[in-house]
Amino acid sequence: MNRSFASVIFLAVFGTSLSPIYGQAPGSDIESQLRSHYRLTKVGANGTVVGQAGSVLVIQEDGLVAIPASYVAYWYNTFKKDGHIKPNNIQHVGHGFHEAMGERRPFQVGEKIYLTDIEVTPTDVIFNMQSCGKCDSSVDPSYAPYRARLAFQFDKGYLSAADSKQVLETIGRVFGIGTSSSTLDAPKPPPPGPPLKLASVYVGAQAPADQLQLNADNSFSLHEGGQTYHGTFAVNGNALELNIGETNTKTTATIQGNNLTDASGQTWVAREQSARPAPAEGALRNEDIIKMAKAGFDDAIIIAKIGSSKCQFDTSTDGLIQLKQNGVSAAVLKALVEAGK
Questions:
Q1: Is the dihedral angle over the CA atoms 35, 37, 38, 42 positive or is it negative?
Q2: Residue 290: in which H helix or E strand, if any?
Q3: What pLDDT does residue 209 have?
């Protein structure tokens, strides 16, 4: 029978919110993974940030030398295999080598920077960076931005088959992930919408005798095609997942407003639950009959009271059992049932 939850069994596959750089198999493209993990900042003349600023990193290691961005150059540094930074020389200086030498300064531990480019060679992972100025309260905002270039050294051939997590751990010895109050930072994502609300009971649109009942303890009962199934359910986004105990399988339905669409495309409609009417003002109720019985009133008086009053009795099986257990006689019970018709 190709119709509905129980007859369509499949394994749900879910995405992951983890950054793509973690959990990659060795041999993945390190550069593309790094670029997906760190958001680059585009800078123009004199270090002006162009468009949306990217990731903010925090310096965690001494010795990283930089020069003003006005030189259209980066001071070259190397993170050696022994775990120390060695300043090397200036690269691609536009003017005044000696002037640049005189204006160089080290980035301080705790100082924040933008990452402007990433390169990967057979032996190095290279970060180009610039001080982020406005986002760093520890630096005088009147200072011109400074730039530096840092090459992380690896053994030849290592990066072609490296575990990207190990590369990140090496980078993490120099750069931590920072936060920024700059208005250039990426906007915060909008808050999640209100949680989806589910009805307690759904019935099959094509087969109204079929019924799915969802309970408050995340258990369910499903009556379909003359068979009954039980199990647990969970909501994942706009998907309702049913774990069917009898078959040890899982099936999923899409939540669409007040309806569900199961894996075979069939629709299940929320059944409106009949609300219990509010007690009528001054109406005689079960608890009133119990009070009178316990007070010792004669059956004739109680029955007369029932006949002369507005009544709103619970005449369900449980309601009658409770009355009987509290000493209400059979004659009164009969009058109470008659009044409830």
A1: positive
A2: helix 286-294
A3: 80
